[in-house]
Amino acid sequence: MKRTAGLWLLIGLAGYALLPWYMVSGGVFSLGWVVDMTGKGAAPAFWQVVTQGKWWLAGPLPAFAAVALVQGFARGQLTAARALVGAAAAGLGLLVAQGLLIPGSAARFGWIAGEGQPGMGAGAAITALALLLILTTGISGLGRGRGDAFVTGLIGLIVALVAIFVFYPVAHVLIRAFELKGGAGYGVSEFLGRFFSANLWGLGCLAGGECGPAVNSLVLGVMTGAGTTALGLAFALIFTRTGFRAKPVLRVLTIIPIITPPFVIGLALILLFGRAGTVTEFFADTFGWEKTRWLYGFGGIYLAQMLSFTPIAFLVLIGVVEGVSPSMEEASQTLDADRWQTFRHVSLPLMRPGLANAFLLGFIESLADFGNPLVLGGNFNVLSTEIYFAIVGAVADPAKAAILSIALLVMTLGAFLVQRRWVGRKSYATVTGKADSGRHAALNPALRWACYLTALPWAAFTAAIYSMIAFGSFVKLWGYDHSFTLEHYIRAFSVSFANGIRFTGSAWDSYFTTLTIAGISAPLTAFVGLATAYLLVRQKFAGKEAFEFSTMLSFAIPGTVIGVAYVMAFNFPPIELTGTSVILIIVFVFRNMPVGVRGGIAAMSQLDRSLDEASIMLGANSFTTARRVIAPLLGPAILAALTYSFVRAITSVSAVIFLVSARHNMATSFIVGRVENGEFGFAIAYSAVLILTMLAAILILQLLIGKRRLRRADRVEA
Amino acid sequence: MLNKTQKGSVRFESVVKSFGEVTALRPLDLDIAPGTLVTLLGPSGCGKTTTLRLIAGLESATEGRILIGGHDVTHLSATYRKVSMVFQSYALFPHMTVIENVAYGLTVKRMPKAEAHARAEEGLEMVGLAGFGKRLPSELSGGQQQRVAVARAIVLEPEVLLLDEPLSNLDAKLRRHVREEIRQIQQRLGLTAVYVTHDQEEAMAVSDRIIVMKNAEIAQEGTPRDLYERPASAFIADFIGDANLLPCEVTGHSADGTFIRLGDDNVILSTAKAPVGSASLVLRPHQVRMSRTPAPGTFAAEVSYAAYLGNQIQYTLTSALGEVFAVVPPGAEPFATGDSVFVGFPSAEVQLVPAVAADQYMTK
Amino acid sequence: MKKLSSISLAAVLAVLAAPAFADELNVVCSNEQDWCDLMASNFEAATGIDVAMVRKSTGETLAQVRAEAGNPKIDVWWGGTGDPHLIAAAEDLTEASGADTSALLPWAVNIAEISSGKTIGIHAGALGIAYNADVLAEKGLKAPACWKDLADPAYKGEIQVANPNSSGTAYTELATLTQLFGEDEAFKLLAEIGANVNQYTKSGSAPSKAAARGETTISIGFMHDMVNLRKSGFPLEIVAPCEGTGYEVGGVSVIKGAKNPDAAKKWVDFVLTAEAQQAGLQVGVYNVPSNSGATLDPDSPDLSSIKLIDYDFATYGASDTRERLLARWDAEVKGAGGAVEE
Description:
The structure holds three protein chains of three kinds. Chain A is mostly helical. Chain A has 30 helices and four strands. Chain A is globular, with a radius of gyration of 27 Å. Chain B folds into two domains: 2-229, P-loop containing nucleotide triphosphate hydrolases (Rossmann fold); 243-360, CATH 2.40.50.140. Chain B has helices at 48-56, 98-107, 113-126, 142-154, 172-189, 200-206, 224-229, 234-239; strands spanning 10-19, 22-32, 37-41, 63-68, 71-72, 83-86, 160-164, 192-197, 209-214, 217-222, 244-254, 257-262, 265-269, 277-283, 289-291, 299-308, 313-319, 322-328, 340-344, 351-354. In chain B, strand 12 and strand 13 form a beta hairpin. Chain C has two domains: 19-125 and 249-301, D-Maltodextrin-Binding Protein, domain 2 (3-Layer(aba) Sandwich), CATH 3.40.190; 126-246 and 319-334, Periplasmic binding protein-like II (D-Maltodextrin-Binding Protein, domain 2), CATH 3.40.190. In chain C, strands 1, 2, 3, 4, 5, 6, 7, 8, 9, 10 and 11 form an eleven-stranded mixed β-sheet that branches. In chain C, strand 1 (25-29), helix 2 and strand 2 (51-55) form a beta-alpha-beta unit. Chain C is globular and about 55 Å long. At the A-C interface, helix 5, helix 6, helix 18, helix 22 and helix 24 of A face helix 1, helix 2, strand 2, helix 3 and helix 7 of C.
């Protein structure tokens, strides 16, 4: 314990005395601040205290001193641990107080009037991190977390990150739900009336009228969750339990929809099934059917969401379906169960955590989806679009946006609790340390055909949609002038070779920015997500359920709300991030982390706990265990988390619209602008390039990480 | 080099473990001498596995102190305790080869790979699996996997080796073979070993001492012989070896022994001791003597079931004192179901234990 | 071990120390992307100031400007309909640029006067009706020429228009009809048209795009959007309603507390010049520039040939009028039915 604490003390002191406390222009890596160490702006906190009399920056000093004293003199583990906890907590408290009480321009309270501070920088970040980890190391010394400093440190770190990057910004938005009219402060009186109003929860559609957006969202969410889970399962079963020949093709088709910016699917659907769509025209001409606008409304959104979110269910389920131990299926068959009974009573129940998590993700994605309802919604109002227009519409109503967001959160919380009950406390461990070498039971013919008949037409449908999209990028005017052209690609991605290579196409800037940001955020997202899953599955600590739910928050709230929340929270000191690329990375990490969490939980609950314990007993610490035992066995979950977060960083629109800046523009927001301008060919061509880029990235990832090395014969009964 | 293993003692001082409302261990004091193999024995839920996990550091004590090799390790995490464990499920890492599994503990301690593999190979040799290193766990039989798990634990030269029902996944024949191997290795290396099982025969076979646990506390501890020959309670008598528990009344003592009243008879037991009052007579199945004629100190019974097993004959007898289970050698006079018999026993060998409630009288 | 993960985290946190403080001009552009890019490079060429530009819709920009109030990251906001610019001015989110408006057309000056100079008109676009000629012919319908034609029951389910609660375009339409016919008469007409509406879209430009592709037959929207679609090759016919029509005025505003106020003012001066404005022709900008000296594209809807009403921006831009009209719209138009999917 003391060694770890000592290490962090040194790091903390270095941060405090050597790195600039506040943000410096050009960034800390530009090193411009080094020459200006003692200057007003770039000075480390220590120098600001000593030479500029900024006593309020002195908070961490006594804490570090106390920690040093503990290192030198404290006898007895418990005494030392208690002292560390006390000192570090006090230091952190002072640091946070300094950050919050002395805002950008003038002190929030009069007593240090006239003084201001810019956003905190590298020095503050390192100091805070060191204090936090000294605190958690101390806590581990008290015997918590089985005395494992890595575990307590990880918990502390993730709790702190979630608090700063989820709770803090979201609170900024949600508090406005309780704002009283005319700036009269806050209260629940107006909130209750608006929250429970019939405008939100009305059931008029049962009587032929319109339902409230909350009801619409709920119905849509449940249907999408159930539908994507069923389809995802059908695909997963085909992959693991049948000898289907064209698996690689199917694989691509299952992945491709998530790597598609949402409005592209909407556009393709309109061109196929809209009133003037190809399919509609065909049926109208052949059978004399009336051309209708059925696509605009529930039907269209549902179709688009099924297309968009089935891959997510598939990604979660494939790992779980693969993970079900063959010996359990063999055991069932030796007990005279036939293949259907084996599936129904053994395999399917063992997939429960996977099914539950797939449903939960589908449900939440549907609730928060904004692109599809926007394009195809018709008069079918859902919460996400209502929220968007409450923020950016002709009449901005932040209170309404906040209230609708709360309604959305209530539904998410409900789904989360239902899911918890359904999965229950049973054990789903099927990868134990006792090696088995059995074979997965093949599906019985009826089930196999059921899978084929659901999944294959769907795959064909997906293929049709994407052919349309590819087609659209090579014609002059999609839907009207179908003469072949490469003009869209040339405008977006032209390269000039005169005087060396110059990227002259208009898309290059946003393309490179997007790839860089997605490339940075994806591994971070996967790491934070899987680390959280590890804590939730493998560790016991107080407040675990609340912790688990809090990690779902940022995912459940529509991107628009998150975007505005981030602007409101991080536009001012102590944490000033707007206009940087960091804010984009952070928003992606914390918005997409829940997928890593869900996938990680599903996969990790299949790993027998004795594997970790064996590793610990062999003298590995929790970190080594996580790295050498758990991580290799979580191959598919890591792949899923990486893939998904990379892709989401590239395709998400709503969250980034407020966060992109001139220097850091993202591809999607660039494309949306083109779509708004009616330049569909250009937008589709750009999207097609993005899709290919992501596909290539996914294939590379898959090659790198490969299949989970369970090393059991991966065969299916003939 | 494996024979220089450090010996470690294990000591519990008033250790309490509770999971929320549930108490898994009442204040427990325990002393395990270095170099011995001690078995924690008891029915499921008795706290034996919790005790083992407390020694391992996989659970932390709610109260009390735990010392290993004289050092307080109560707050030390499992990683840093010099303790290894063989799991019931073996917990072999499925993605590593046998040699990688065995060398794992060494490599995480930053031993160079070549050296670690050499040591692991020695360990495999010790469990008779030399040359199996390149295989995957899934390519080994259950017994081989089990031995890999043992090798993986002992190459670390732990102060204490913990074994959590290590044989429960093996078939009966293999079980005897492997437990002998484990015992030999333990003795050869002079390891302190703590062994958890619910199988009394296994416990008797391998242990220096046995700690029998019941309801989150220790019921009795001692050498296998102590427990079998001098059970302290009806529970121990019944749990360690089969026992018929017959209700009796201790009426007095003399230089010849203890006077008891068994049914209508008065009997003197020369070695058994118990205070005056009601008690239970511990009659081992092999101590039962059956004859067709009555004699002093016998009681009447009827054969309700007979089974010929080749090396022995088993009888279930019904009597006024309850059901009696008997095992006799095959050469003895055979009885048939329905025969009336008289049951006697060697009065110098049987033991007395405190009486148990009437409804608990039954044979297994 | 733990060090590794925390070092990577520390690295990320350390980048926090890199906001954009460089000397440059941060522009949010709410016009078409090509027009944005062209103006930015022309400005850079003319002044040597480095422009960082991002394109966002007006609603999004306004929401961001509100959220960033007090510490804005944007210096100047150029383009988009005038209403959000006027709202930003009313909420004191922008500040007067002091630019010279003497060369501008009256409606552009009018906007500047209403907002005390905080926003200045840069272009105007008239509201119009568009129909898909192919679909109209196929259905055997006659082309609409006036607002009142749209109330014809023959058009049932053929008209698409945006919802004024979310779309500034639709609000302009609502205000236009109110000014043309008087409030009561206007709402009666809107309800009658509403019976023919197949969908109230969220976005103002969506109806014309749908009409272009034949997803609906008739749309209401801004004529410059329609011209754009028509130029792309869609069979869209554009109608200037016979009763007269309203228009929007696009604005340019300097954000209050801008980090680069001088450069921002230079930008405003620049975009008001005739040369800068008529450059829009190169990239197909079909609305009417506010500088009287700028030349027009022959395809542009010529405002002089269209019967324009004297749009009262002061009254109809005020938030109490807005709230009253929208509440009435919800009750009398939306509530009156329509929005039928066939």
